[in-house]
Amino acid sequence: ERINNMLKNKICLLLIYTLIIIACSGQTCAQRQVSSLEIEPFPVKKTFCAEKIRVNEIFSPDGIVVKKGNLFVTDSRNNDAMIYQYSLPGFHCIYQGGVKGGGKDEFQISPTLCKTVSDKVYIWGYTPFLIKCFILDNNHMSLEEEIKLPISDRIVNFMNVVNDSLLIYSTFPYKLNIEKVNLNTMQITGQILIEQKQKELFFDENRGYLAANDSLIIYAYTYKKQIDFYRVSDMKLCKRLVDKTVVPHIIVNNVKESKFCQRELVTGKRYFYIRCPKGEKGCFIEVFDYSGHSVAKYELDVLLYAFDVDEENGIIYGYNGDVFEDGFLKYTIL
Predict the structure, then answer these.
(1) 141-170 pLDDT per residue, tens
(2) How far apart are CA 296 and CA 129, in angstroms?
(3) Is residue 140 within 8 Å of residue 85, measured between CB atoms?
(4) What are the backbone angles phi and psi of residue 21, rounded to the nearest 5°?
(5) Please, which residues bridge with residue 89 across strands?
(6) How far apart are CA 116 and CA 268, in angstroms?
């Protein structure tokens, strides 16, 4: 009887391990079953030169977001004014403030403007675990809600607020995975596992940039020409675009010699925009719709360190302090 019990226990353990392996391999296969599609040629190709917009404020933006006729800017280097708000198209400074410190309404860490296709403004950085939601009314920003995050053990990146109820973010620099948090229940409700190829995550060939609209998560790889589409609802891969002619070239711990393919990702209500390198000067902005079709490729004369797109008026706003430190760069693409 004792031998029979031991056999039963071994069989149970074997069944459990088998089920785990099947579940894990099933998840991996689900990601790999999606056929890769070649990135379509861009039907529209145009070249633009920047219009330089001078402003009175002195800053060094590291984040830019366009919302309802306003341009919001973060400057992590200025501890006395970390947030700026400008009305468009006149670039009148409506607000500058946001002090770094530990007091109420001060930023404990550098602020981040969360990405969202909503008309609301989400700002993270008051504490590592707090996002404040603001609504815009006639260019006036008023606090609507404070959101306390359940991710209390680490800093995350590429924060996206979806449907004003979900937070989707990358676990980089700890891992490459993507997680989803329900902001109503404060529970982590989904995860995308992205394979890590090496210890140095910054130089991992699967590292990428993350953005989302209300139904899709877009993941653009840094070192290879690949764009993955995941459904927000179940976090499953549903489309993959590739350019097989581009071969990753990575020299670990050597930024200058490594070849970057895609460096920034911005989502609009109609399209998403990827900033790509262009030799020693300038950059490309590649435009795709959410079905994965190529829309346009814009060649810009200046490399934009930060940018966003006013889709309604067909304008790209950006910044490069090495080229023009006294204000913004403006490209009218329509």
Answers:
(1) 999 999 998 875 566 799 999 999 999 999
(2) 38
(3) no
(4) -60, -45
(5) none
(6) 8
